[in-house]
Amino acid sequence: MSCELMLKERTGIINPMYTCQPAGAQYAGIGVKDCIPLVHGGQGCSMFVRLLFAQHFKENFDIASSSLHESAAVFGGAIRVEEAVETLIARYPHLRIIPIITTCSTETIGDDIEGIIRKVNQKIKENHPDRDVKLVAIHTPSYSGSMVTGYDNAISAMVKALAKKGEPSEKLNIFTGWVNPGDVSEIKHILSEMQVDGNILLDTETFDSPIMPDKSAFAYGNTTIEDIADSANALGSIALSRYEGANAATFLKEKFDVPSIVTPTPIGINNTDIFLKNISELTGKPIPESLVIERGKAIDSIVDLAHMFFANKKVAIFGNPDLVFGLAQFCLECELEPVLLLLGDDNSSYKKDPRLKELEEKTNCDMQIIWNADLWELESRIKNKTIDVDLILGHSKGRYIAIDNDIPMVRVGFPTFDRAGLWKYPVIGYKGAEWLAENIANTIFASMENKHDREWIINVW
Amino acid sequence: MPLKLFCCDECIPERKNHVYIKEEGEDTTDFLPLSNIDTIAGSLSERGCSYCGAKLVIGGVIKDCIQMIHGPVGCAYDTWHTKRYPSDNDNFQLKYIWSSDTKEKHIVFGAEKQLKKAIMEAFQEFPAIKRMFVYTTCTTALIGDNPKAVCREVQEELEDVDIFVVECPGFAGVSQSKGHHELNIGWMRDKIGTLEPEITSEYTINVIGDYNIQGDTYVLQKYLDKMGIQVIAHFTGNVTYDQLRCMHRAKLNVVNCARSAGYIANELKRVYDIPRMDVDTWGFEYVKVALRKIGAFFGLEDKAEEVIAEEVAKYEGKLDWYKERLKGKQICIWTGGPRLWHWTKALEDDLGMEVVAMSSKFGHQEDFEKVIARGRIGTIYIDDGNELEFFEVLDNIHADLIFTGPRVGDLVKKLHIPYINGHAYHNGPYMGFEGAVNMARDMYNAIYSPMWKLAGKDPRETDSPMWSLTEKDSGVVQES
């Protein structure tokens, strides 16, 4: 049994796993209430990303563009930001925060975002004395990192700009990372069972928005400027994602002495146990029986499936790094063999991820981890028959690999547009583990039926 | 009424020049909305970028071609898994996207070597594919990479490949439109006339400006096959790279999307003297006109009438069934531009519907000339509409349905208004006779969905008239 970390050999990308930094920053921005992110760059940098969110959530999210045209690209784009902010403030009376997100074009031409913000702040004071609109600079050049780093940079930038020491809050900061509304619900549920007050950064539960009889509801993020400011006063921070929010937690520790724990993303039973233990340690609250019962229910479900249907099945996993590591750990818990893990960007700190060592110790198979990978890396290995997989866990942009090669695939991560409603369900927590195991089983069952592969076995199990 | 300033636009009064409400007796040439000019920053305009117009809309449709996006990864990711243009070779063009993955060091020191490596790898990984489009994006244009030189080098080294380069950074122009232009003119300059087609019919055409959304091109191809007309190239629905090199040999250019592809039709007229015939391939009655015009050009009137008779016999009854149920319904069209003028009168004539508000993302003045000529009195005509304007429009008019993109559809559903995907359709194709029926069916199903009545009902208000309404009209509640 071995665990090997390798860099993709090709230079170019065929079928990218992640998109670029500004998209991740936009994702962070839409999680904030009364916020319209302003993307400083060409118009595609925001329109395509708005479409991407609509693909995943089936909802609209407001994001503005500075509409960089040719003259600004040549002579500088400062005026476009100034005009955009003025237009946004004048037309959106509820607007309270505008993250100003750079792109490859405006990083290349070197627009001075901080300088622009200073100037625009002055103008807001003069033109809108009754308004308090925060402008936050977010530097996200697309030619480094990925949407994952962009999300992390945006959360960090907003916390750095807004966190403010005041009265202790007795709350626990939870940096969720790039998760679904269903995961946020699960986090809130766990905190509520433990009688802990959470400050969820960012609270995207409200992305799941109703159609109301009076036509009043729309999808929005629910973390307020006050919540972010108050993160400085928490009794502790837990970051559920090493690559998506942990830097903000570290900042709060260094600047405001808020104790911080980066917990392994709570996917699977053991990682959720660690999460609960960490909440308990930071708050002094015991783990209640209700969660022990939930845990037992999840284990009960998984036991029905693991050695009967999952054992020795080979799995390829791709997606955001914390998700991939977490899913691999989960696979090992339920006897699946995660033979190939794909991480989609060139973040060399993956080498130092403690989960790598844990996977190495626990693995039940020869495991390859490719970083800076694209989805062609997966497809070409399957087509060349250099690997053989029974199951794929990943997002919908990998769907044709599964379809064309007739491999069952469970959609996880972002985006999952080719199945309905997945963003409403958790993959984290005990409930998430149960949901994952049962979805994997049901997907395998459907595939057995389609292929007439011992489909008669699915009777008394 | 002359041009209109929306309340939400009071702080950007220049928007007044982009919105027209048509009134009886007006000289509409006095009120043509300004169009194809700079976007107002921060307005939440619907516009996209020039790169999108080149790659996603036109080039990416080609079915046997590597699409190499020279730049950071986002532009490639963002134009993948978003389109619905199938092909008869198992949708190669939908499954793959390529990026040269430029990083900071390339931005500083130049990305040409990176591009070349990525191109060589792409051909190596897909040995059966010998054709490639290369697109520049914002950064690789700014740093002044010379992708044409790189591609010349590659073509010398790999003798059996052919590469076309489009310089289409997202900031060029003001919208997708510039990318259309760049690709059209570049293709004409670099590739047309570099290959000779096999001519199999005395009647040859190019179908220009149709991108096979949900199989539109197949429908048109079927009619033309029946008429014995050879299509040298579809620009660019279900087409191969090499077919597009042969466009100079057609006797006629039949243009549907005059916005995105009128350029190449004009150039083919100028250089090769091929006449340009503009038609509408959406709309039941319009398609008859189109087939008759094409038939008349070649002296194939009888063949055209045969196709029309056959199709009418198959579909007219169905269309009339929907007409009964759709007449008088009021709808909006918020799309790119051309579908406004293709659809407004067609929906009125074929189905008795009223198009009451239209918005174009990137249309030019000629698109507004067309739509205002064909459109109704009292209708609102908007250039580069933005989100708050859309809300205000919906406050001021009644809309039974909106043709628009899925994200805006997700927004207006909260207002209990159904949408049909005006870009990529719900259940297409929408072109041709059968397409007109498909479109009518989707509109009917959207408007008459029982969900809208349920959405308007507040279950707490037990004495609301909505209770009996729901029972009676939709049959959701069983008879007691």
From TrEMBL, chain A:
Domain of life per record: Archaea
Keyword Cell cycle: no
GO molecular function terms attached to this record: iron-sulfur cluster binding; nitrogenase activity
Pfam families: Oxidored_nitro
Keyword flag Transferase: no
Domain Nitrogenase/oxidoreductase component: 20-444
GO CC entries: vanadium-iron nitrogenase complex
Keywords: Nitrogen fixation
InterPro entries: ChlB/BchB/BchZ, Nase/OxRdtase_comp1, Nase_comp1_CS, Nase_VnfK
Record-linked NCBIfam families: vnfK_nitrog
Similarity remark: Belongs to the NifD/NifK/NifE/NifN family.
Database matches in PANTHER family: LIGHT-INDEPENDENT PROTOCHLOROPHYLLIDE REDUCTASE SUBUNIT B
Protein's name according to its UniProt entry: Nitrogenase, subunit beta
Source organism per UniProt: Methanosarcina acetivorans (strain ATCC 35395 / DSM 2834 / JCM 12185 / C2A)
Gene name per UniProt: vnfK
Automatic annotation (TrEMBL), chain B:
The protein's name: Nitrogenase molybdenum-iron protein alpha chain
Keywords from the named record: ATP-binding, Iron, Iron-sulfur, Metal-binding, Molybdenum, Nitrogen fixation, Nucleotide-binding, Oxidoreductase
InterPro entries, A to Z: Nase/OxRdtase_comp1, Nase_asu, Nase_comp1_asu, Nase_comp1_CS, Nase_V-Fe_asu
Any Pfam family: Oxidored_nitro
Protein family: Belongs to the NifD/NifK/NifE/NifN family.
Broadest EC class assigned to this enzyme: oxidoreductase
Start and end residues of each Nitrogenase/oxidoreductase component domain: 49-447
Function: This molybdenum-iron protein is part of the nitrogenase complex that catalyzes the key enzymatic reactions in nitrogen fixation.
Iron found in the keyword field: yes
Reported cofactor(s): [7Fe-Mo-9S-C-homocitryl] cluster; [8Fe-7S] cluster
Biological source species: Methanosarcina acetivorans (strain ATCC 35395 / DSM 2834 / JCM 12185 / C2A)
Region (Disordered), start-end ranges: 457-480
Catalysed conversion reaction: N2 + 8 reduced [2Fe-2S]-[ferredoxin] + 16 ATP + 16 H2O = H2 + 8 oxidized [2Fe-2S]-[ferredoxin] + 2 NH4(+) + 16 ADP + 16 phosphate + 6 H(+)
Enzyme Commission number(s): 1.18.6.1
